[in-house]
Amino acid sequence: MRIPETRDLMVSELDFPASCDEVKEAIGDVRLESPLGSEEVLRDVLGRCGVQKFESADELYDTVVGNVSGEHIGRKKYDDRGPSLGDDGVSF
């Protein structure tokens, strides 16, 4: 499942506020697919966040987005507000 699709799942499968354990029990086995095709289990993402209770689906979704692995991040070292430097330090 792509990360943007998880918000609808959270709304349909959970009642808020919800504890982290309740979220893991209800939808923790969902596999999050990165743009590069690798997968990560939602339970593992939540294990890194340190949050014990979510007041809303938006709060849970934001927590997931903020704690996924680097495989879910777009082009590394990209900055749309200035020159983008590649690994060799050359601007694109």
Q: Report the C-alpha radius of gyration, rounded.
A: 16 Å
Number of helices: 4
The overall average pLDDT, rounded, is 84
**Percent of residues in helical segments?**
40-55%
Low confidence ranges: none
Largest sheet: 2 strands, antiparallel
Class from helix and strand fractions: alpha+beta
Quick one: how many beta strands? 4
Note the gap between the termini. 32 Å
Shape: globular
Order of helices and strands: HEHEEHEH
Oligomeric assembly:
single chain
Strand order of the largest sheet: 1-4
Q: What portion of the residues fall into strands of 2 or more residues? A: 5-15%
Key traits:
single chain; 92 residues; alpha+beta; two-stranded antiparallel ribbon; two-stranded antiparallel sheet; 41% helix; globular
SSE layout and pairing:
Elements: H1 3-13, E1 18-19, H2 20-27, E2 31-33, E3 39-41, H3 42-49, E4 53-54, H4 57-67
Antiparallel strand pairs: 1-4, 2-3
